[in-house]
Amino acid sequence: MKKVMAINGGPRKNWNTADMLRSALDGAASAGAETEMIHLYDLDYRGCVSCFSCKRVESYRDGKCAMRDGLSPVLDLVMESDAVVMGSPIYISDVTGALRSFWERLIFMNLAYDMEERSVCTKKISCGLIYTMNIPQEMMTEWGYADMFEEHMRFLSVLGGTCEYLAACDTYQFDDYSKYHAPMFDADHKRRRRDAVFPSDCEKAYQMGVRLAGGPPC
Predict the structure, then answer these.
(1) Structural domain includes residue 201
(2) What are phi and psi of 85, to 5 degrees?
(3) pTM attached to this predicted model
């Protein structure tokens, strides 16, 4: 049985990013995979501290981060998985600091400083990336986010597996728009889009999960 993990890089456990990650896990489970969700905001950890323990001659092939904190067991679980789907809301035109710090640790410990062999990862771990954002599709395109997402996939290629991403735009940001000062947004439009479009985004995440678990082509 394959194991597929979800890493929630957003602070909310029951909103856009988490909902799409759960859909991805549902898709993976439908293809027979064992699934698990980790919420990074529950953990106490830091990003890479540049100790270079993972690059020492005696340990660089171990592919393990020497830091021991709340993220350590999660990194172990990821390395035991067949696929991992990672999600984040876009904050100030990038992923959350929580997910970025997770990536620093995961990617660097698997990266080889070698001209020919660029990875010490001994297995192929496929990756799915899910991004949620308040801005509309046309603005995401205008601001060049696709290039950023492609760069994320390039770095995650160190894990040796396939990688794909999915972006959900113009998401429903607040539970009640009347409680917040945000006159630039049309609450009715946001609500209609969540009802009409977000279920399709979740279905796309579901199909991503099926693919990551090695299910039939979608």
Answers:
(1) yes
(2) -110, 125
(3) 0.94
**CA pair distance 211, 205, nearest whole angstrom:** 10
Tally the domains of the chain.
Answer: 1
- Of residues 191 and 59, more confidence is placed in 191
195 within 8 A of 7, measured Cβ to Cβ: no
Here the CATH number for the domain that contains residue 63 is 3.40.50.360
Structural domain harbouring 24: 3-212
pLDDT band at 218 (very low <50, low <70, confident <90, very high): very low
- pLDDT, one tens digit per residue, over 182-192 is 998 988 999 99
Q: Which two tokens stand for residue 144?
A: 């060049």
**Other C-beta atoms lying within 10 Å of the C-beta of residue 130:** 31
Is 217 inside a domain boundary? no
**Long-range pairs for 161-164 at CB < 8 Å and ≥24 separation?**
161/83, 161/124, 161/125, 161/126, 161/127, 162/126, 162/127, 163/126, 163/127, 163/128, 163/129, 164/127, 164/128, 164/129, 164/208, 164/211
Q: Which residues contact 92 (CB under 8 A, 6 or more apart)?
A: none
In terms of DSSP bridges, do strands 3-8 and 34-39 run parallel, antiparallel, or are they unpaired?
A: parallel
Q: Where are the beta strands (DSSP E) in 9-114?
A: 34-39, 83-89
